[in-house]
Structure formats: structure tokens, C-alpha cells
Write a structure and sequence with these properties.
Elements: H1 8-16, H2 22-40, E1 43-46, H3 48-64, E2 74-78, H4 105-112, E3 116-121, E4 141-142, E5 145-149, H5 155-162, E6 168-173, H6 179-185, E7 188-191, E8 211-216, H7 219-229, E9 259-263, H8 264-267, H9 274-289, E10 293-297, H10 305-320, H11 338-349, H12 352-365, H13 371-391, E11 397-401, H14 417-421, H15 428-433, E12 437-444, E13 450-457, H16 462-472
Helix pairs in contact: 2-3, 5-6, 7-16, 10-12, 10-13
Length: 476
């Protein structure tokens, strides 16, 4: 096994036992990026020089016994997350020259303990997409089949982890942007409860749904990373005041007696791939063998989740992206007056999907349509949340497919936005409700493409999710 193929746990053990150094581990990851990124396009920016310097510092910490769980481990970051001194474009040309003066809180926590940042991952611009084809730096290819998409919007992060270009990645999930690409690429992708991780330093898409989480090779690694990045942040008023549990403490406990719900609406969905359904069924059977009590449950408002999501998100987009005008930071286009400057900067700096969502959101928020669209969507959002609240009185967890289908071809759905939106149909309900969910690799279909199964928990129920995920994952 090559060093870059190690999990966090394995790399941690190797570094502490002095089998190899952080510099050696980092060099192998950088070599893999050089060899593969031209085909996969998972990275927009590679931090070769600074990564090696950070690795040397990490080796010093390890030698002196001052190390932390993530010291010396090479990681990558979605480009819609700010990194001090490292270009952060959000995959949009309007920020092509933007270098943040500060780290996002979650990134600062990792870098302060000696984590090694190897680069910034390609993504759908500002998180707008489900296939990573809406990046202005080109689409990301699936490392299992370069003709297929990596999923979105955190496709670059998922592809980088799956292709062993880094040991793990920090990404962002608004409506499924961590879980869906993790499923497509055969990685573990975790969305925590809303408020569990700080959003400070994240380029905002839809502030009431945005969350930050890890994409890793195993569930254990996801739990380990969460234990290091979660917690209250005075810079983000939506973070929880509760102390962060030790997510690894109970991860190996057996599942006997755990109540698992099978939401029927997810399995009645038109367009659900037969092999995805079969793989999910096998995982459900495995849970029964492990002593779980499995029963069918209902989330009756699930069918409205995509419609709610694609009203609320554009509305919040139209507000959040107003700060990108070519004046305060980013790329500026010349114009004969202020309007020309704004219009020119946005016309050339935003891809089509970003423009589409801004227009939809502005329309839905306008005086004549606010009640009919935005207010109605918020009302239905409350009903969706209540569905989850009620079902979690009966069961501990839910299990569903992560996506109704495996990775599709690059360009296959690009001209059909509605078909692309449906790629999030399995993952958006949990996001709307603000509950945690994990996609675990669960095997491959007959074409050799990975398939993920999603485990959804109650709000702040991350520990149970990790317990189940560690028993179900099938490492490809």
C-alpha cells in the first residue's frame, strides 16, 4: 500500500511510530496530484511549497510530542471555503484573484494543530450544482470512470479523497453537496447537524442550510475529523452551545436493539435505479443481522423537499451573492459607469447556473411573489422538519439510498437543469430539516461505479450514525 492510500487512523499511527514522516507522506500525495489532476481536475490550486513547509513543522511537533490527532496529515479544502494566504475562488472567475487574509474557523482549527493543506478543490461555483460541471475551471471527472461526473457540488473534494490525492478533505453541504459526490466516488461523506460546525469563513450559498463537514475514506476518519472541528464559535451565532461528544468513544459498540426506519417515500421514487435499490436492500438486511429492529416509516412531505429547496436556496443566493460586485474584492471589469462595472463583472465572473439561481431568487422575493413562493416554501419546510421530528420518536435512525442513481456521464444532464436538480432528491430533505446524515460506500454496480447508502439521524444524533456507518461501509 502506498502512503497516500492510508486512512487518517493509519497515517496517524505511522507518523507516531516513526515509520515515515509527514514530509514523506505529503510528497507522495503531491506526486499523486501531479500524476492525476490533469485527468480528474480535482484541484484548482496546489500548495506544493507551503504544504512541504507545513509538513516540516508538523514533523517537529511530532518529534517533540506536541502533536494532535490531525498533525502531519495532508488534507484538501473545497474552494468555497476560505484559507489564509491561499487563493479561494469558489470556482467562479469573479474571485479568480481572491486570497483570503483569514482561515475559516474549521480550517484554522486543523492548521493550528499541524494539519498539512495540499490544495483547494474544484467545485460547482459557490456550491451551485449536483455534478461539478458548473465550475468555471472545468468539470471534475470521477476517478472510477473519467467519462462520468464526480457529483456536486463538492466533487473535487470527493474525487481527491477517492483517488488518494490527499488523506481527507473538508467540504460544504447545503442540500447534499458532501453526501452525493461521496456516494458517486466511493467515499464517506458526512453532513453534521446544522450548527454543530462553524460556518465562519464559508462562502455563503444558503445560510440557513449551509454546513461544513468531512469527506474521508472511512466512517472512523469522519468521526475523528468531526471531533476536531466541531464546537461553538463566537464568530458564528448559529453554532451550538453544547459540548462536543467524543464521537469515537462508542463507535465500536454493537447495534443490537437499535431501531432503524425505512422511509417508504424514498423507495417509491420514480427513477430509482434497480441496482441502487438492491444494494440498499442488502445493507438493510445486514442491519437486521446485526440485531437492529427494522421497520417501515413514512415522511409524507418528502415529495415537496426538492421544490422547497429550489425556492429557498435561490432566494438566499440572491441576497448572499450581492456582495460580489467587482468593487470590494475579486476581479473587476471596466465600464463607462458604475452599472457597467457591476454588470460586466458579474456577467463574466458568474457561470450560467449562478445567474439562473440569482434571477429565480430575486423573482421569488419580489413584492408580488414573496407570499406565494418564499413564505409558502418556509411553511412547507416546517412540515418537512416535523416529519423528521415525529419519525425520530419511533426510530433511532433512517436508512435510504444516497442518490437515486450512480454517477452519470459528463454532459449527460447539463442541458436539463431540472434533471440535475433531481440528483439531490434523496439528500435534500435532511438538509432542509437540519439533521445529520452520512453517506457510506456500499459497493459497486455492474458497471463498476460506486453506490452509497445514506444514514440519517436525529438532530445532534451524530454518534449513532457513526456507529452504524462503521459497520456498513464497504471499502472499495
Amino acid at each position: 500500500m502506498q502512503l497516500n492510500e492510508l486512512t487518517i487512523k493509519e497515517a496517524q499511527e505511522g507518523l507516531r511510530s516513526k515509520k515515515f514522516t509527514s514530509v514523506e507522506l505529503t510528497k507522495v500525495c503531491l506526486d499523486r496530484i501531479k500524476a492525476r489532476n490533469k485527468d480528474v481536475n480535482a484541484f484548482i490550486t496546489v500548495c506544493e511549497e507551503s504544504a512541504l513547509e507545513e509538513a516540516r513543522v508538523a514533523d517537529g511537533l511530532l518529534s517533540s510530542g506536541q502533536d494532535s490527532p490531525l498533525t502531519g496529515i495532508p488534507f484538501s479544502v473545497k474552494d468555497a471555503i476560505c484559507t489564509a494566504g491561499v487563493r479561494s475562488t469558489g470556482s467562479a472567475k469573479i474571485l479568480d484573484n481572491y486570497t483570503p487574509p483569514y482561515d475559516a474557523t474549521v480550517i484554522g482549527k486543523i492548521r493550528k494543530q499541524g494539519g498539512v493543506l495540499v490544495g483547494k478543490n474544484n467545485c460547482d461555483a459557490f456550491g451551485h450544482g449536483a455534478s461539478n460541471e458548473n465550475s468555471m475551471y472545468g468539470p471534475v471527472s470521477n476517478p472510477h470512470d473519467l467519462s462520468k461526473v464526480a457529483g456536486g457540488s463538492s466533487g473535487g473534494s470527493a474525487a481527491a479523497v477517492a483517488d488518494n490525492m490527499c488523506i481527507y478533505s473538508i467540504a460544504e453541504d447545503t442540500g447534499g453537496s458532501i453526501r452525493q459526490p461521496a456516494s458517486f466516488c466511493g467515499a464517506s461523506g458526512f453532513r453534521p447537524s446544522y450548527g454543530r460546525n462553524s460556518r465562519f469563513g464559508i462562502m455563503p450559498m444558503a445560510s440557513s442550510l449551509d454546513t461544513v463537514g468531512p469527506i474521508t475514506k472511512t466512517t472512523y476518519d469522519a468521526a475523528l475529523v468531526m471531533s476536531q472541528i466541531a464546537g461553538q464559535d463566537i464568530l458564528d451565532g448559529t453554532t451550538l452551545h453544547d459540548s462536543v461528544p467524543n464521537y469515537l468513544e462508542k463507535i465500536n459498540e454493537d447495534l443490537s436493539g437499535l431501531r432503524v426506519g425505512i422511509p417508504k417515500e424514498y423507495f417509491e421514487l420514480e427513477g430509482l435505479d434497480s441496482e441502487v435499490k438492491e444494494i440498499t436492500a442488502k445493507q438493510i438486511d445486514k442491519l437486521k443481522e446485526l440485531g437492529c429492529k427494522v421497520e417501515e416509516v413514512s415522511l409524507p412531505h418528502t415529495k415537496y423537499a426538492i421544490a422547497v429547496y429550489y425556492i429557498l436556496v435561490p432566494c438566499e443566493d440572491s441576497s448572499n451573492l450581492g456582495r460580489l460586485d467587482g468593487i470590494r474584492y475579486g476581479v473587476r471589469q471596466k465600464g463607462k459607469d458604475l452599472y457597467d462595472l457591476y454588470a460586466g463583472s458579474r456577467a463574466t465572473g458568474f457561470p450560467e447556473e449562478v445567474k439562473r439561481r440569482i434571477l429565480i431568487g430575486t423573482y421569488a422575493l419580489s413584492a408580488g411573489y414573496y407570499d406565494a413562493y418564499y413564505k409558502k416554501a418556509q411553511t412547507v419546510r416546517t412540515l418537512i422538519k416535523r416529519d423528521f421530528d415525529e419519525v425520530f420518536k419511533k426510530v433511532d435512525l433512517l436508512i435510504t439510498p444516497t442518490s437515486p442513481f450512480p454517477a452519470f456521464g459528463v454532459g449527460e444532464k447539463k442541458d436539463d437543469p431540472l434533471a440535475l436538480y433531481m440528483a439531490d432528491v434523496m439528500v435534500s430533505p435532511a438538509a432542509i430539516a437540519g439533521v445529520p446524515a452520512l453517506s457510506v460506500p456500499s459497493g459497486k454496480n455492474s458497471a463498476g461505479l460506486p453506490v452509497g447508502v445514506q444514514i440519517i439521524g436525529s438532530r445532534y444524533g451524530e454518534e449513532k450514525i457513526f456507529r452504524v456507518g462503521s459497520k456498513l461501509e464497504i471499502i472499495n
